[in-house]
């Protein structure tokens, strides 16, 4: 039976906008995330960006966050002790191009990532870099309407060329857009859009797809060894019953998450897209040149996040009480345990999802987000989080089964290996890490780091390449 490859990349994941802080420091511009508050006001802002544009809030979590910008050396030393082989992180676009449309980059921002990558490589930790992780410059959203505007392809390409030429000897694996399908659920966060109108959202997504193909072509011309991947927010969709209508509803819901990955991997819009566009009154501007580019420059690998599966039904009574996790609403599954924040725990669903993606695309997979958000209790320097160990153990067991099934897996990075700010709620109390950060939902605390019980557990998993879990 197959086991994890000897060079399997065990690691952790974080994002610049949820960890760096250092708001406007060293020439950084504003990101769309920088105007978002915490809690219900954040949720309101994500649905209606004008709500955030038009007022000032008492606290913006991203402005200081966990201060990774200043504490990255200490944090990487801890992660090296954990034993990780790779760290998935992102580059803050407005730290490199403050407004997004400049001709020349901000050298201070580039220098920070030079130092960050060098620090990782010093410990033999491979950087896995997301180019745009919910971090579009705010100026591009307010001035150009975000990715709805075709000009963002040019700005993004200029940004990517700067990164590729600067870091190609330090970074092999690149992800063009974080969870590209999330633009259908949260157009502002994923695309800097200030509208939810369907045609605008799909046009923005098309521009992201073209941009992704453009920079894949560019990357291969600069350094063919660079691997350019796409990413989706994944989770298999189950029918609630064997009623054929439930099964059809689940199929249609599942198409949402694969719609854009079909383009990025297969090089063409899926066969069902024409009917979908016609029935929803969606008209896209797509040139033949763009379609040819999409066909030729496809993704080298598929990255994805997995937190839970989803359940679909046509029963209106059941649909009255949907739960919503990671912006993906679902009917509650009576066979699964709740994890809080609208999520249920489904380890077997992890294996099902991995196989579903691999069967659909036959392309190497990289699991770049998986984890449990929970309210950890700290007693002195101790954080006992056996529930997190249980979560990861059950999921890694199923990931190992997927490898035995024959799936080609590059690696596995747990989400929030160090506690960070939640993208959806802005909370700090929704903790994911093996490392606790002393910070609360109002930004109060010392930001001191503490190792949780799960730290030593994951350390052993990595040390044994998944043999001991």
Automatic annotation (TrEMBL):
Active-site annotation: 369
What family is this protein classified in? Answer: Belongs to the glycosyl hydrolase 1 family.
InterPro entries hit by this protein: GH, GH_1_N_CS, Glyco_hydro_1, Glyco_hydro_1_AS
Q: Which Pfam families match?
A: Glyco_hydro_1
Origin organism of this chain? Enterococcus wangshanyuanii
Asked whether the UniProt record includes 4Fe-4S among its keywords, one would answer no
Keyword set, alphabetical order = Glycosidase, Hydrolase
Protein name per the record: Beta-glucosidase
Q: Where does the record place a coiled coil?
A: none
């Amino acid at each position: 039976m197959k086991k994890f490859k000897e060079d399997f990349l065990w690691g952790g994941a974080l994002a610049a906008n949820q960890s760096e802080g250092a708001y406007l420091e060293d020439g950084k511009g504003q990101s769309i995330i920088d105007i978002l508050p915490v809690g219900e006001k954040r949720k309101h802002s994500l649905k209606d960006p004008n709500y955030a544009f038009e007022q000032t809030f008492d606290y913006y979590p991203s402005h200081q966050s966990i201060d990774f910008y200043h504490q990255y050396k200490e944090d990487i030393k801890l992660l090296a002790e954990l034993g990780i082989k790779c760290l998935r992180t992102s580059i803050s676009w407005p730290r490199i191009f403050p407004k997004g449309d400049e001709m020349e980059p901000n050298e201070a921002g580039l220098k920070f990532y030079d130092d960050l990558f060098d620090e990782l490589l010093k410990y033999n930790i491979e950087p896995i870099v997301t180019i745009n992780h919910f971090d579009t410059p705010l100026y591009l959203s307010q001035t150009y309407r975000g990715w709805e505007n075709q000009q963002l392809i040019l700005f993004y390409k200029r940004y990517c060329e700067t990164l590729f030429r600067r870091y190609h000897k330090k970074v092999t694996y690149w992800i063009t857009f974080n969870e590209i399908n999330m633009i259908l659920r949260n157009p502002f966060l994923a695309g800097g859009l200030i509208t939810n109108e369907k045609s605008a959202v799909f046009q923005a997504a098309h521009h992201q797809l073209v941009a992704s193909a453009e920079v894949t072509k560019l990357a291969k011309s600069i350094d063919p060894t660079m691997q350019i991947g796409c990413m989706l927010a994944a989770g298999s969709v189950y029918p609630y019953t064997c009623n054929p209508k439930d099964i059809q509803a689940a199929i249609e819901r599942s198409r949402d998450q694969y719609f854009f990955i079909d383009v990025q991997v297969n090089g063409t819009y899926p066969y069902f897209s024409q009917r979908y566009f016609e029935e929803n009154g969606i008209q896209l501007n797509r040139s033949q040149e763009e379609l040819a580019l999409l066909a030729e420059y496809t993704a080298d690998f598929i990255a994805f996040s997995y937190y839970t599966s989803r359940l679909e039904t046509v029963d209106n009574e059941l649909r009255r009480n949907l739960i919503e996790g990671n912006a993906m609403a679902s009917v509650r599954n009576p066979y699964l345990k709740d994890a809080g924040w609208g999520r249920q725990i489904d380890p077997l669903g992890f294996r099902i999802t991995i196989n579903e993606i691999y069967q659909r695309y036959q392309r190497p997979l990289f699991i770049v987000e998986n984890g449990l958000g929970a309210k950890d209790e700290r007693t002195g320097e101790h954080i006992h989080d056996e529930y997190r160990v249980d979560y990861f153990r059950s999921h890694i067991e199923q990931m190992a089964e997927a490898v035995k099934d024959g799936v080609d897996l590059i690696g596995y990075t747990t989400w929030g290996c160090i506690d960070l700010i939640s993208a959806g709620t802005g909370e700090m109390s929704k903790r994911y890490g093996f490392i606790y950060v002393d910070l609360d939902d109002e930004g109060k605390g010392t930001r001191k780091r503490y190792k949780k019980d799960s730290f030593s557990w994951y350390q052993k998993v990595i040390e044994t390449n998944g043999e001991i879990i």
